[in-house]
Amino acid sequence: MTTDPISDYLTRLRNAISAGHKVVEVPASNMKKEMTQILMEKGYILNYKLVEDNKQGIIKIALKYNGKTKQPAINNLTRVSKPGLRKYAGVEDMPRVLNGLGIAIVSTSKGLITDKEARKQNVGGEVICFVD
Questions:
Q1: What is the model's pTM?
Q2: Which terminus has fewer CB within 10 Å in the chain: N or C?
């Protein structure tokens, strides 16, 4: 039982990337599924698959690397809002990651979306993490 499942998810991804693994397995939850979907849509991971195990389920994530240099697509994963200190941002002070080259995943009233989509839809919310 972890106290912060989102930090656990990000740490598992970080560790798998630094070890050069092709696939990483994480326990499933609705928020993790949405975060994985965003990472796939934005091109940070190759693919993912949901595996039912008669408990909470598992998300198998295929990590993405550059063909020649073997550099991972994800350079940095940073948890922003933690259970002990929540970080919220209105639409006017929505953070920009690497001047727009990275993404911030934001939990809004319209679900989990990126910082760019939040600005487009004119909504603020809790800044979950930065990906670049």
A1: 0.95
A2: N
